[in-house]
Amino acid sequence: MKKIWKWLALGGLVIIAVSLTISYKVYSDVKETVEVVYTPFHDELSVKREKAIDVTEKEPFSALILGVDERQGDQGRSDTMIVLTVNPELATTKMLSIPRDTYTELVGTNSKDKINHAYAYGGVKMAVSSVEALLDIPIDYVAKINMESFVEIVDIVGGIEVDNAFEFFYEDENFPVGQLELDGEKALKYVRMRYDDPEGDFGRQNRQKQVIQQVLKKSRSLNTVFNYKSIMDTLENNLEMSITFDELLNIQKDYRNSFANIEQLYLNNGTGSMMNEIYYYIPNEEELKTLQDTLKTQLDI
Fold first, then answer.
1. All residues at 6 or more sequence positions from 145 whose CB lies less than 8 Å from its CB, including other chains
2. Whether residues 119 and 183 fall in one domain
3. Which of 85, 143, 269, 278 could cysteine-pair with 287, CB 3.0–4.6 Å?
4. Within a domain: residue 75?
């Protein structure tokens, strides 16, 4: 009987040792990836901040996620612009997808244009400044991801399942109504289509959110855990962000409850307008002001 307990104890120690080794390996790989992708896009303090935020003090913060379509020799445009505002005290995250055709000031050009042109004209710096001017809030962190990597990530998690609201064709691919299983290539086409969507760019935003939620859901599966290194490798080649590893650890530790309560915000009561045969989305001023106030309250400013 003592021998049995001895072997059980030894087996338990081996399991613990292996678990700790795996945990350290994962920690080490994630740390290495974050250090590789860390990019201080804007060293100077935002004009809308008196001092830099400190996540160790559990202060509310904002982040701009830019999904760009970059190809060799072409900086591309930011087809996806998502603003997150996170408040740990309120345990809430507010998520806003900015319509890509939004007609607004492009800071640094002395002119107005579609907001997604800001990245093409002046990179991340102009994109950040233009979003800050539109929403009248500071942007504390930035993450820029090449949408081409989206294909690899969806394939790594084993594909996703979405509920398609209406049938459409895009780039020779048919997307019927109902539950669809999508690999990476199909998922990218699914989120890119907008001209045949009755809701236009707003419909595309909803499909983007749907796909992102499904990817996050699949990323928690056991299969994906074993493939985490493939995801890290993909991110190293396609992601840049201004969050350090230590900041990320603090956010994961102290802000996790906020990410469990995500509220979608919208800027969708504006009007479409044709200028020189080009479509622009003109925000509703009252809705925009309400949105600005909501975000300022969320950021406690």
1. 65, 66, 67, 68, 238, 239, 240
2. no
3. 269
4. yes
